[in-house]
Q: What sequence folds into this?
């Protein structure tokens, strides 16, 4: 049996940050609830993230592997659409 020493055989997966975008119409309370429910943040953290988005135009809500990030984006957009809000959500590779 031959055991080869290999370095760097596996790499950690590319991670994706899920970003919410500001708009003028989605209620602040709705955004806070979305961040709490889909990104598992407590109310205080969710409120801070929402205010950052409101002031800066966008904000990171969480960092996930590709498929999980894509699912989060779909869930947020569907919840916003159902509620009649234009809230937008995207994922982008980290680094
Ligand atoms: N700007 C919105 C308002 O004043 C609130 C808001 C915050 C909307 C964050 C979207 O991702 C968002 N009602």
A:
């Amino acid at each position: 049996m031959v055991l080869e020493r290999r370095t760097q055989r596996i790499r950690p997966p590319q991670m994706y940050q899920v970003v919410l975008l500001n708009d003028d119409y989605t209620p602040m309370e709705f955004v806070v609830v979305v961040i709490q429910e889909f990104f598992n943040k407590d109310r205080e953290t969710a409120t801070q993230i929402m205010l950052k988005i409101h002031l800066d135009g966008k904000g990171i809500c969480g960092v996930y592997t590709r498929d999980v990030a894509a699912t989060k984006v779909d869930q947020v957009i569907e919840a916003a659409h159902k509620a009649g809000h234009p809230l937008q959500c995207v994922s982008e590779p980290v680094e």
The longest helix spans residues 66-83. Strands lie at 15-21, 58-65, 88-93. The chain has three helices and three strands. The pocket of L-tyrosinamide is lined by residues 20-24, 26-28, 31, 50, 53-54, 87 (CB under 6 Å).
